Amino acid sequence: MPASSRKRIVLLGATGSIGENALRVIAAHPDKLELVGIAAHSRHARLAEIARAHPGVHHVALFDDAAYADAKTSEAFPTGITLYRGLEGLNFLARLPEADTVLVAVVGTTGLEPAITALAAGKNLALASKEILVLAGKFIMAAARASGAKILPVDSEHNAVFQCIQGHPLADVSRIILTASGGAFRDWPVEKLAHVTVVDALKHPNWSMGPKITVDSATLANKGLELIEAQCLFGLRADQCHTVIHPQSIVHALVEFTDGAMLAQLCPPSMTFPIQHALLHPARAAGVDAPLDLTKLLSLEFRPVNEARFPLLRLAREAMNAGGSAPAIYNAANEIAVAAFLAGKIPFLAIPLIVDNTLQTHTSFEPADLAAVLAVDAEARRIASSQF
Ligand code: NAD
Ligand code: MG
Known about the structure:
The chain is α/β, with parallel strands linked by helices. The protein has 3 domains: 3-153, NAD(P)-binding Rossmann-like Domain (Rossmann fold, 3-Layer(aba) Sandwich), CATH 3.40.50; 158-203 and 213-269 and 288-307, no CATH class; 323-388, Orthogonal Bundle (Rna Polymerase Sigma Factor, Chain: A). It has 15 helices and 11 strands. A 7-stranded parallel sheet has the order 4-3-2-1-5-6-7, with helices on both faces. Strands 9-8-10-11 form a 4-stranded mixed sheet, with helices on one face. Helix 6 packs across helix 13 (326-342), helix 12 (311-322) packs antiparallel against helix 13 (326-342) and helix 12 (311-322) runs parallel beside helix 14 (350-360). The longest helix is centred in the middle third of the chain and has 18 residues, at 130-147. It starts with 6 loop residues before the first strand and ends with a helix. The structure holds nicotinamide-adenine-dinucleotide (NAD) and magnesium ion. The site of magnesium ion has 4 residues, from helix 7.
């Protein structure tokens, strides 16, 4: 394939867990993918290494001012690189004229404006940052509809649903089922949960991921966020979105059609599979990691989720049913509570309490525009932070 027909990729969140997996995918397909821009919060030395390994990179953004200032004086970046800073820097990369696809893999909600900027500029959005769909899904989907740009889900369950529903009218889908590993504490007795430490919560049985999503997996807030993400991405009703515990993390989602038939997507628990699918879509190529080996013993178990054990899943469902601004409150309160837990300021079981209390203070309404959503987000963060 000539160099000009390669897909040119901007990667926001290049130093994170998704970012590093995306770099493996891009490096494995030099004939199909070219990295042209990268951004991260502050790890400029790692960004410089990435830029040296990918000569197509000419644009690098750092969110953090001090890191940007250090990077400016650093000799580590190859020549021909322009450095940008802050949210404006991320937005500049998101609309980079030479880019085809922007992969947003920034933890939390900082990626919202860059995602909308990318879609408005007609770039395809490979989307890992589920929090932004929970915060402002309606506006992200509207930006995609307005420009005709595609949203390609990177979250493994949503990528699985996306693959299973290709070629099927939405009216034929009766429900979708997202699988959940059950997280770090799926087999712990409930009474032990009061004593969970940060180290315990960061041990995920199947996936290696960033700290925020690993804690979200332990509380099942991750699955709650994913239900809302799925509803938004695929245009489903809340009662069509379900979860099931599947300890092996091999089936990532199932789609049940009106005739009772189910399609499922299977692959090993490595994010390189959905990332590659999203970046190459609609093409396919050899994967980075080995596929499943069905000559070896493989058992697949499914069991219902006990929502009493995971109050954050129940609260997510309630927020999804309430609609309007409720999911934004849920997401913001959870982000604040998880950051406080990771910083050692609150115990594990305070996370659902803070989210619940914050939701209780709020009457859901339909935000008219993005500014209204951001105001709700800020207010929820203030209320959640006042609880510790
Ligand atoms: P991580 O903590 O490993 O990495 C986060 C990345 O975001 C880093 O590159 C960091 O520099 C960057 N970042 C943070 N704040 C920033 C800011 N203000 N400006 C610019 N960059 C900033 O997180 P992760 O596990 O890679 O997750 C990233 C996103 O992908 C999350 O929204 C998560 O829910 C989603 N996701 C992750 C996985 C996974 O396997 N890790 C799976 C599905 C979805
Ligand atoms: Mg997921």
